[in-house]
Design goal:
This protein folds into two domains: 33-81; 93-159, Roll (SH3 type barrels). It has helices at residues 33-52, 57-82, 97-105; strands at residues 116-120, 124-132, 136-140, 146-150, 154-159. A hairpin with a 5-residue loop joins strand 3 (136-140) and strand 4. By secondary structure, the chain is an alpha+beta fold. The chain is built from three helices and five strands.
Amino acid sequence: MSKKRSQGPLLYVNQPLSGTSSNNNMQEVYTSKLDQEKLLEEKQQVKAVRKKHSPTKQEIEHEAISVEEVQSSSSTRDQEKHRPSFSRVKPFKEMKLNERLDYLINFPKVLPPVPCVFYTIEKSYQGYLTKYDEDQVTIKFHDQTSKTLPVGAIKDVLMIGIKNS
């Protein structure tokens, strides 16, 4: 039998050498709850070994301080993890009058203003809230006119731009 030699490729495509790709894991550093729990267990084991020896008062104070630091740092991390990314906003219907006015004046600027109905004892006004001070409210109407009312005269504010079923 004849020996076959390994030959190169029959068709050669010129490609720049960019190096070979490696199959290693892209994530190099990670942490998990198990790692943190193991760290706490190791510290407790070290404390148990130290308890077998008769520690001095300085060592006891130092250990108490380090344990408090570990507990406080882990509790603050837990609190940070459990915070919701968005704070829960009270529904507009459940807000008081001053909360509603604060909400409307601080409405996101990227959204169009919400048309509202401002109810007073004499009549109701339909328009947009443009200015709110502690004692006065300025309402801009659809015909581009505006009116300033005292806050005490306003009895209720309802949004009419957003329909709630």
